[in-house]
Q: What sequence folds into this?
């Protein structure tokens, strides 16, 4: 299941023992689901949310009686759920007790640029700061927060930093439904219970842990019903989740940026790329014992051939209840069509093609569309590009991230139309800070397909050779990141900066 001497970095594969990973069964499973811990509002004043978040290392026993050092927000895994209302004024004091610089990024929320945890605004070890912002009307939805320091977002998320946010609206047509909150993350532990550093394949394909956890639990037991509104977060670094419930269907009602206009037709599965969120109801004809699964999704990893594998994320007991979802959930404005204002191209620049072992399919060394520049450096041991070469592999508009460079500019408050192009051989989830966008159309080859429904998103997956036309407006001036949300790619430099003027 592997090429050359490259380890197949997958649970259940033969190389696992050699890599010394903790066997998955060593973590207890099957316990009742615990609700997400909630961040308490210490303010009494209506419309004001005040709290403190501390990032620090904590020792936990997670598997096989071994002690794991996690980095957590307020000692909780996942970090506490922040429940806000549209219009809220938010003041969060943040203290960094880690021994490296970090930031908190409010993924998907339209907060001012200097409050958004950009890599430029690092909070050094031992330092504190306030994050202050006011939520506009109309931003009800499902968001999250995570570290965004320069080059180390992946490492910090891999150690446990990340938390969920829900913004509510009193006008929400689904507000009377009970909710389930499922924050999905993955975790890698070695045989000693430690969180190991990235391997070469992690840097290439993104890191996936052998433990896929729901609210930080392995395969919890969940009691739910067809009358519950379920919000799911994919807070994994690189793992794609094709959610499926055998015997039931999923009725999607929301995306990253809140509700859809209408519930979608019931579907067998919903694909959640890293950083995406979804809201759905389960449709089942009768009471059902089932499970929440992640079906295999081929995201065209490089130099890895993997066995299609279905993961069980949770056991479900689903009670059947008749419900009558409203036909109209909200209206989402149609954005007037216009010419493209910018092109954003994701590419992989392969080092030294003649040294590359053959990858998937016909072998990527000979793949058309790749740039073969002598970036120098195959690691002779692993036949992987060395670290120096990988640092310049993942690019946006043929450049590696530089925090001192402005890559694109746009005016405040005007519609922008971006063609985001995946000129590479693997999937990349595109993410833009500071706003939500609409996908207008997708194109592979010459066929442009209009998006079948309107939705607000901040993250959209791009298949290899796919172009996505999206539209957004930035309401606040300042610096905004856009990047691939496979955190290892982001950290390697598949990120760029938009100056909103
Ligand atoms: Cu969720 Cu720039 O990230
Ligand atoms: Cu973000
Ligand atoms: Cu990527």
A:
């Amino acid at each position: 299941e592997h090429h050359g001497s490259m380890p197949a970095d997958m649970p259940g594969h033969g190389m696992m023992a050699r890599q010394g990973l903790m066997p998955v069964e060593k973590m207890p499973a099957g316990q009742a689901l615990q609700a997400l811990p909630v961040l308490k509002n210490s303010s009494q004043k209506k419309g004001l949310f005040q709290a403190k978040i501390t990032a620090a290392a904590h020792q936990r026993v997670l598997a096989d009686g071994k002690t794991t050092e996690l980095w957590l927000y307020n000692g909780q895994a996942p970090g506490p759920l922040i429940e806000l209302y549209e219009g809220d004024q938010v003041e969060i004091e943040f203290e960094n007790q880690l021994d490296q610089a970090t930031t908190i990024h409010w993924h998907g929320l339209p907060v001012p640029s200097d409050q958004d945890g950009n890599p430029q605004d690092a909070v050094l070890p031992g330092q504190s700061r306030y994050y202050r912002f006011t939520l506009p009307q109309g931003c009800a939805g499902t968001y999250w927060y995570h570290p965004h320091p320069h080059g180390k977002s992946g490492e910090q998320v891999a150690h446990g930093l990340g938390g969920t946010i829900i913004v509510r609206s009193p006008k929400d047509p689904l507000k009377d439904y009970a909710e389930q909150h499922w924050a999905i993350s993955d975790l890698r532990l070695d045989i000693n219970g430690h969180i190991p550093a990235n391997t070469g394949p992690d840097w290439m394909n993104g890191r996936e842990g052998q433990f896929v956890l729901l609210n930080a639990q392995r395969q919890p037991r969940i009691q739910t019903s067809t009358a519950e509104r379920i919000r799911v977060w994919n807070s994994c670094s690189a793992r794609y989740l094709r959610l499926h419930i055998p015997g039931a269907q999923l009725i999607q009602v929301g995306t990253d940026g809140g509700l859809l206009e209408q519930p979608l037709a019931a579907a067998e599965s919903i694909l959640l790329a890293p950083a995406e969120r979804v809201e759905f109801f389960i449709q089942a004809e009768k009471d059902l014992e089932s499970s929440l699964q992640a079906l295999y999704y081929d995201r065209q990893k490089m130099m890895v051939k993997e066995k299609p594998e279905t993961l069980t994320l949770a056991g479900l007991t689903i009670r059947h209840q008749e419900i009558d979802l409203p036909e109209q959930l909200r209206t989402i404005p149609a954005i007037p069509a216009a010419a493209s204002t910018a092109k954003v191209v994701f590419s992989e620049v392969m080092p030294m093609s003649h040294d590359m072992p053959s990858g998937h399919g016909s072998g990527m060394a000979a793949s058309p569309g790749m740039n073969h520049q002598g970036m120098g450096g195959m690691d002779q041991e692993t036949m992987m590009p060395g670290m120096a070469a990988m640092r310049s592999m993942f690019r946006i508009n043929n450049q590696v991230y530089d925090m001192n460079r402005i890559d694109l500019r746009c005016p405040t408050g005007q519609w922008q139309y971006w063609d985001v192009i995946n000129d590479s051989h693997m999937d990349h989830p595109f993410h833009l800070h500071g706003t939500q966008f609409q996908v207008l159309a997708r194109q592979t080859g010459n066929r442009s397909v209009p998006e079948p429904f309107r939705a607000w998103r901040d993250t959209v997956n791009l298949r290899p050779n796919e172009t996505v036309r999206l539209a957004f407006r930035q309401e606040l001036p300042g610096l905004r990141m856009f990047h691939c949300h496979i955190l290892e790619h982001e950290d390697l430099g598949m990120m760029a900066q938009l100056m909103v003027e």
Notes: Residues 428, 484, 486, 489, 494 surround copper (II) ion (ligand 3) (CB under 6 Å). The first helix runs from residue 15 to 19. The first strand starts at residue 48 and ends at 63. The domain at 15-168 is CATH 2.60.40.420 (Immunoglobulin-like).
